[in-house]
């Protein structure tokens, strides 16, 4: 597989496959024959997504604004057309196969499972190669950005250098990059190509007013953007992109009113709502499993998406999720598996979603959740976590050391004094104590 030229910005894929027949290509007087039947190398037949090099047929398609081509591994026009039709049926965004409208069409178009399997494998190969190509491009871009001249730097220049530096120091994850980019996108939209060394403290004050005037942006989110801005300009000064940190003196907004309003607005799920979510018949059983695990563990969705079979452990007769990674040190913990979901978990293969990024999984799961819960409400996936914690506290209020045990179970910051006690002197909190808390949660 090789890449071709970049498409025009904003080009999109035609998601409706055109079903061509061999006669369309072999007819001596047809327009398709004139486009297709040529021995010229790299002959462009983009409208048909097919072309031929040295008598071997190739498939050509735009993926993520890149032109990708793959050998169909045949010199036979009929075989090439069969394989092309499967590739056409793959989703344009992710190139993942969906058995939906194409179900019966596939049965009639393919004589054997093997022929269909070959075509599908080619589709997955295209997906892999497209992502590898994109990875190489981004890696090269960041490497060049780190070494790029520092004169006349803009926020776009700063973004590339900042992320390249974080990557080099191994201090950045997907969530952090997403957060950084969110702020950088706002800065680039506002300041455009203005050079960093020309931006004054007053300019940043006006930018702060701009954030305040944006519709529906909470003070907490504005402060987050201001915090990142200060980090970015501090980095720019270290890299000698600017002479001084003109953002240093920018003050933060009061978040108390927002917090009070949010506390009054936000609520947890009722038992009836949880039962409705867990008892709904979703398009795929995996979504029921996601909601059950979140409801009975208080786990963060990201923690759940990362769980593999190896993370299901047993100790002292207690099965638990061994979470070995997370956004903070507190995220690393052992979560006893609730009796209500134990049988389901032990009979399930993890990860629940293969080879998919958190954002992609999250969108799919939220779409299913909103079949039961009003999309416009404040209820969401993380509400399971708040609901679990609320019930665990209510059902174990008399338990000694409840809060350290609960914080260790859900991965919350325990505070300096509790950290000293539980992390330093009691590294192995008994699972049985945490299991008691977990099993106390019910939605009857």
Question: Would you mind describing this structure in some detail?
Answer:
With 444 residues, this protein is α+β, with helices and mostly antiparallel strands. The protein is built from 19 helices and 7 strands. The chain has helices spanning 22-26, 31-36, 77-89, 103-109, 113-147, 155-168, 174-191, 201-213, 219-238, 256-265, 271-279, 285-297, 301-306, 342-346, 358-369, 383-395, 402-410, 416-425, 431-439, and strands spanning 2-3, 50-53, 56-63, 66-71, 312-315, 318-323, 333-336. Strand 2 and strand 3 form a beta hairpin. Helix 5 (113-147) packs across helix 6 (155-168), helix 11 runs antiparallel to helix 12 (285-297) and helix 16 packs antiparallel against helix 17 (402-410). It starts with a strand and ends in a 5-residue tail after the last helix. The model is unreliable at 1-46, 93-108 and 416-427 (pLDDT under 50).
CATH topology of the largest domain: hpI Integrase, Chain A
CATH class call of the largest domain: Mainly Alpha
Overall geometry comes to: flat
| Distance from first to last alpha carbon | 56 Å
Q: Say which CATH homologous superfamily of the largest domain is assigned.
A: Intergrase catalytic core
Number of DSSP strand runs = 7
Helix/strand structural class:
alpha+beta
Order of helices and strands: EHHEEEHHHHHHHHHHHEEEHHHHHH
Q: How many strands, which pairing sense, and closed or not: the largest β-sheet?
A: 4 strands, antiparallel
Q: What is the domain tally?
A: 3
Low-pLDDT residue intervals, each spanning 5 or more residues? 1-46, 93-108, 416-427
Proportion of residues in helical segments? 40-55%
Mean pLDDT: 77
Number of helices: 19
At CATH level 2, the architecture of the largest domain is Orthogonal Bundle
Q: Which percent range describes the beta-strand content?
A: 5-15%
Q: Report the radius of gyration as a whole number of Å.
A: 27 Å
Strand ordering within the main sheet: 1-4-3-2
